[in-house]
Amino acid sequence: MLTRALDEGDDTALTQAVGERVAPHAGGGAYATALVDALGARALVRVAAHLPAGGGGVTGRAGSGGSGTGSTDPGVPLACTWTSLLATATSSPLWDEGHREALARDLVSLVTVTGDLTEPDTLLLPLGFRRLLTADQDPLTAAAAGTQAPGAGGGQSGPGQVPGTTSPDQVPGAGSTASPGADDGRGLGAGRGRSGSRDPLVLEPKFLASLVRGVMAGETGATTGGLRVGWVEYARLTTTAGGGYSNFPEDAPREVRARYLLYDPLAAVLTAAARTPATVLDVLAPPVSGPDPRTLGPSRRDTVRRVLATRVDGSLWAWVAARAQKAGPACLEALAAAVASASTLRYRPTAPRTNLYEEQAAWLTEQAVVTLAGVDATAWTPPARRAAAVVLANSVGDLWDVATGGVYARGYQPFYRSLPVAWSGRHDVEVTVLLREVLTDDTALAVLSRAVGVLSARHLLSAALTARAPGSWAQAEDTPWKAAHAWLLVVAGRGATLEGYLYAACATGRGVGEDEESPAAGVALAALVQGLDLHGLDPHAPWRPPAAPARAARAVTGGPSLTSQDLGDSVAYDLYHTLLLVMDRTRLLPDEAYLEPPDPFEDETDDQPPRPWNADWMYQDDQDHWHLDPDRADNDPDGFRTWTTTHPVMAATTSGRYSIGTRYDQGVSTQGRPPARHGPGIPPGQAALALLLTAATARLVYGYSHTYQRRAQRHWQHRRARQRRRQERHRHQH
Question: Which one of 312, 388, 420, 464 is CB 3.0 to 4.6 Å from 586, fit for a cystine?
């Protein structure tokens, strides 16, 4: 019936056949493999080209056995049904590897080799190829669906958990979506999981890798032989642009360039791969083959696994990267979305289930940043910038290295050891260039600024817990809470440095002057505050990537206009505010900081109950420890500021807040000077100098803070003694 409808050109009958006959059985392996074999590659693509792009039709659940669910939901597009049929066939054990590779070769030849234009639907083959692989979904949407669905990964445990998602530890190689308030992203086209349900649109990784190799071989062979690539010729014949992806006229309208999404087969394959983070790495960054660890003894098994994890076959990536740099917006969007999906696997494995893709994800994101930095500015689109922002946000530790000159991989603190494996080298120039392009988009700026907030909040909380632990260096001091406060100032300053570095890149990319107000500063500040939110944050939860493609898929509007200096002042205040909330949460602040100072004109009695400084947002727990109510304190910013600046205990520490603003200025100045290129890591001399300067700065801040507080405390005690003597003289006189 499908073949007859194609031959007769009856699109209505074709749509009815797919919706009523194919959809209920699309999830059955035997049915799918038999139908695909019977149709062949050309008919498979032709059917996809003639299916309607909108909703309508039904679909079965892949992996449901023979007949699927028999659903009659009219909201499921028929393109999804047809893609799920191909996904079921390529994943079926009824086909061996050779069968899948043969189908991949046949499909690729339809779009890389110029066919006979007299045959039916020849000019529609690139469109059908894309719809067959992507179900008419754009790259960022496909990546968002794949990393948001059940089995695709979770987020920062606690406040960052997305309703309906699970922890990445539940699925080996699953992505993470640490995005509070993100859309669930469920539906047809969700991620693969261990629970037994499989995303009906996920194509088999080796099949996708065969498609990429086929596109590479077909385009390379045609170019070498002096022939025009098939899809380029079809594009030339069906648009007024002429030429192809490599020789587009510079004055071609933007809408004409955008139509290349309908023709470029590499963009279609990358979009299909973006649906599952592990698939992207299996296709673009497969590990180098070696001995099967299962055949080795226990003493060598773990060693071999670690070695193989750090060795990646980058041959296919090298061609894809070079191709994407010159292919235009469509391919750039698909590549950025695919790497954004893979970047959600940048987290350390945790027992009992592990992440087998951490090293590959680090390698691919590093290579992608270098590649994307070399893309011409005219090729960038908002979706590409937002997907690239996800890649950078999930590499926020590496950005921290660039902004501060540090090397977090060499850190000894528990927080640094919780971060994912770092890039192999510093890429100051590439990161700076890429940030200046990407941060011209408000949504991209919000994604990255929020990641800075997440990093800073978790770093502050981890450092506070370390200082609070028995036997720590802070506990050995005369006043442990003051020592902890001084160190937390250094930690908060590092977050300010990174935020200053990001906004300076944003301002440079947008052409905003140093003293000029910009709504982008408001966007950055709002996102940073969101990332600093401590509500529900589990201090013992492992690090998870702070960004997900679903967050980048939602547009962000501009905020209030601020100058860079205004932003720096607000960043310093918000980081210091979070610092105090962390100290309160970890019980580092002394009880005296919560209590109202004694009134020198009142008689002191032993039975007088302590009075809190502010009864609205200070309370006492069952163990008589005082705490802050963060929600109520946030609703009284003036009262909170008054407490931190006028309370005798707190005022003695407030002077250190200005050091955070100084660190913000350092981040801005880092963007202002041309960064020097480095090889892998930092030269030993520079590393030693950075460590020495960090230690000296921490000691200076602590020494000043400690001295200032001690003098203020003595002054307060002397003043209180004078007031008591004055009261006694007054009573004797009367």
Answer: 464
**How many Å from the N-terminal Cα to the C-terminal Cα in the chain?**
113
Residue (of 653, 657, 659, 662) closest to 705 by Cα position? 653
Indicate the range of 121-125, 162-166, 547-551, 666-670 predicted with least confidence. 162-166
| Residue 617 belongs to a domain | yes
**Angle CA 474–480–486, to nearest 5:** 75
In angstroms, rounded to a whole number, what is the distance separating the alpha carbons of residues 692 and 493? Answer: 17
Convert 299-367 into a string of H (helix), E (strand) and C (coil).
Answer: HHHHHHHHHHHCCECCHHHHHHHHHHHHHCHHHHHHHHHHHHHHHCCCCCCCCCCCCCCHHHHHHHHHH
pLDDT digits (tens, 9 = 90+) for 57-71: 333 333 333 333 333
193-240 pLDDT, tens digit each: 333 456 789 999 999 999 999 999 999 888 777 778 888 888 877 764
Return the structure tokens found at 190.
């969700």
Task: Name the E strands within 426-565.
Answer: none
Q: What is the pLDDT of residue 159?
A: 34
Report residue 158 as tokens.
């606690």
Burial class (CB in 10 A: 0-12, 13-18, 19+), 137: buried
445 falls within a domain = yes
3-state secondary structure of 591: helix
Cross-strand pairs, 304: none
- The residues near 276 (Cβ < 8 Å, ≥ 6 apart) are 146, 152, 191, 192, 199, 202, 205, 341
Alpha helices in 18-77 (DSSP H): 29-50
Domain count, the chain: 1
**Which of 580, 649, 664 is CA-nearest to residue 617?**
580
The total number of residues written for the chain in this structure: 734
* Type of residue found at 172: P
> Looking at per-residue confidence, does 171 or 5 come out higher?
5
Distance CA 717, CA 727 (A): 15
For 352-387, write each residue's pLDDT tens digit: 667 889 999 999 999 999 999 999 998 999 999 999
Per-residue model confidence (pLDDT) at position 394: 97
Q: Identify the CA nearest to 390 among candidates 310, 311, 277, 491.
A: 277
Residues contacting 537, CB < 8 A, separation 6+: 156, 158, 159, 160, 457, 458, 461
Q: How far apart are CA 130 and CA 272, in angstroms?
A: 9
Ranges 493-502, 521-530, 689-698: which has the least confidence = 689-698
What token pair was written down for 610?
Answer: 């302590």
How many angstroms from the chain centroid is the CA of residue 165? 16
In whole angstroms, give the CA distance from residue 368 to residue 336. Answer: 8
* DSSP secondary structure, 633-674, as one string: HHT-HHHHHHHHHHSHHHHHHHTTHHHHHHHHHHHHHHHHSP
The C-alpha atoms of residue 446 and residue 299 are separated, in whole angstroms, by 47
- Number of helices and strands (H, E) in the chain? 30, 2
Which helix (H) or strand (E) segment holds residue 626: the answer is: strand 626-628
Closest by CA position to 274, among listed 395, 146, 128: 146
How confident is the prediction for the chain on average, in pLDDT?
78
Task: State the residue range of the domain holding 612.
Answer: 438-728
- Determine, yes or no, domain membership for 520: yes
**Structure tokens, 220:** 């390379």
- Helix (H) or strand (E) holding 512, with range, is none
Q: Tell me if 199 is assigned to some domain.
A: no
Helix (H, G, I), strand (E, B) or coil at 489: helix
